[in-house]
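Regression test case RT-17, inverse folding.

Input:
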């Protein structure tokens, strides 16, 4: 007879404690002063365990961002391309302007300097591509993922990073309008993106 497994168990408790410690520490101090040693001490999880599970501080932050985004900002499915894009853009603008916005912006900045894209960026790209693929299945002609990144997502982050002025809902919708007004160079299908 095998022992019963507890839902979540120790691994889930460790992840929760470490994530909470990261968020607490980021709320109290500058990102640059954060260390795995501090996270381990605050969480009550041995430093070796943190290193074994995440390896680097960047990987840990990436895991925190991935978890927070998946909980707070699931991909919309409104039934139309415009509806999906507008809902996503407005939510992204809210996320960047919200209490965790600094974490998302900083994680994106750090990710652009790393050799490999952070998991949350790869996950988000896959989710966005799935949203665009749904539009193709409905017979719509969506932009490419690169066009979405350049015309909608990048300006939202740019405003937060360089202007310290978040994009509001109307501005987010206008970016989507700009994206959808781009000329379509030919039939778009999954294989062309």
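Golden output:
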């Amino acid at each position: 007879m095998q022992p019963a497994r507890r839902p979540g168990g120790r691994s889930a408790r460790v992840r929760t404690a470490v994530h909470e410690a990261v968020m607490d520490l980021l709320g109290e101090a500058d990102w640059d002063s954060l260390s795995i040693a501090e996270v381990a001490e605050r969480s009550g999880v041995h430093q070796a365990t943190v290193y074994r599970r995440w390896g680097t501080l960047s990987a840990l932050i990436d895991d925190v961002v991935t978890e927070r985004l998946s909980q707070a900002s699931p991909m919309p499915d409104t039934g139309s391309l415009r509806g999906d894009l507008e809902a996503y853009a407005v939510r992204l603008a809210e996320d960047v302007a919200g209490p965790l916005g600094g974490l998302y912006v900083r994680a994106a900045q750090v990710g652009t300097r790393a050799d490999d894209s952070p998991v949350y960026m790869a996950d988000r790209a896959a989710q966005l591509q799935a949203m665009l693929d749904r539009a193709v299945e409905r017979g719509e002609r969506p932009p490419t993922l690169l066009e979405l990144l350049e015309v909608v997502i990048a300006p939202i982050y740019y405003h937060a990073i360089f202007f310290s002025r978040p994009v509001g809902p109307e501005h987010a919708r206008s970016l989507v309008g700009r994206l959808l007004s781009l000329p379509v160079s030919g039939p778009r299908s999954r294989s062309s993106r």
